[in-house]
Batch of 2 targets.
Target 1
Amino acid sequence: MSQQTFESYEEFWPYYVAMHSRAATRWVHLTGTLTGLAISAYGLARGRRRYLAALPLIGYGTAWPAHFLIEKNNPATFGHPVWSLRGDAQMIRTMIAGRDAELAETAAKWLAENGRDGCGGNECG
């Protein structure tokens, strides 16, 4: 898959959602992130700072395999780490709000316009 370039986060967002087109991938992200947050919060409450490592370890440790095994793509984090972190937070907020179907629609629209490789049927870069 070729590296995508974006001018803004708003342009990146539909791509990010498309890289999470399957509901199972989104739910693995949500579960891993919330579990990592819960363990980190517990650690902070108990004065055990080392528990803060749970967030990236569990969050990424569950999310990245979901891309390889479920989506069959590379995590957007590899090319866009800051925007991906923001995208993950926005995706999780959307899911918690009960709007997962909205994410599925955004992903389907982006993929229909750009194809699974993001090149719209054209050879990328």
Target 2
Amino acid sequence: MDHLHGALRRAAFRNDVPGAQLAVWCSGEAAEFEVGEERHGSGRAVRRDSKVPIGSITKTFTATLLMVLVSDGDVGLDEPVVEYLPELRRALGPTADVLTARHLLSHTGGLHAEVVAPPAGGSAALATSVTDLVQAPGAGFSYSNAGYALIGRLIEVVTGMTWAEAVRAILVKPLGIDLAFVAGSEEASSSTASGHTVNRALSLVRPVEQDLTSVEAPAGGLAASAADLVELAKMHLAPTHGGIDPGLVDPDHLAEMRRPVPGAVPFGLADGWGLGLALFHGDGAGWLGHDGTADGTSCHLRLDPESGTAVALTANSATGSALWNDLLPELRAAGIDIAEDAPAVESGPQKPIPKDCTGTYVNGDIAYSVVVQDDELHLVVDDEPAARLAVRDGFVFSVTDLSSGTAGRPGRFLRDPRSGRIDRIQIGGRVAGRQRDVA
């Protein structure tokens, strides 16, 4: 696998990534590579233990931590969360009685995509900010940071610790790894890499700081090295295939995390979803993992329980996803055939614009407007023109970014099963409902 070091260096240079780490665990052996700088122009080299803000891969840590509590009998996956967070009943009414930890871990809880931080009271007041849902719990998949914020609060109530304290004491210390925290009062370590934005037209690479509140931390507040991510992945590999069993989670509960949740259809993100893990089938057996983007970073984790293989990439630039795509054929040449990240829209003739698709769709504070402009379908997000849409069979659409011309993750229009009218849109895994006309 030595050729991967050169491949990583070339891909980082080609995609204007200041620094990156690649870690591979295969056949019981580790291969680790680092290139570049922690912060552009600093001369501070990326090391094996450099921590990169991993964004939503934090959710896999939070989910695994909760499963430790499930294995210990402290939390029931299918018990109403309101049993632990009674304030949810005041916020959601009778719906609170059916919302479970399984729903929240699999993004089938119906919560808004983003966390609405309470004005006072911190995480203890979080549940009071959950005022409505995009769909009923269990009705389908809609990616939700708010759901993981609630899981973090649940962990705090059950353990009597802050979420950060519980992560350290219950999960990462037994795993023998040391993470950094990039939200709230937790100070990032001196080895935490900066995120970067890239203006390729002007050849500008600019460091950016992380902007995350402590309430959002369970959804995206960790920084880790690629080697740290592989250590977590080893828990989720079969011990007979190179996995490591630290004795934290019962094997049956680990298997539960890898099992696809019925109705969790993360269209455009993956082929299925378990508990804190996405499922990527590709053309063969399933890979699992998670992607994460923080402010100016892009990170990826993949694992195959059957072959005992895990791969992690951290990149301290928003262009890191392109680096990852460049590395996939290099990994394939090394015998590691990772499934593609997300289903592609079927090629074929573009369909006419559905007559009832235009309008505004909302998910919490996010507004997606679908408009016709110059005989093309366009997407406007929070009043900012974002993408051009091309409709294919089944009301699926491809997405082309207006500023860069690059293809984004596909989406789809969803119809009300009773009326047949388009009443929702799913994009980036998030479901948004059509905004009702105000009289």
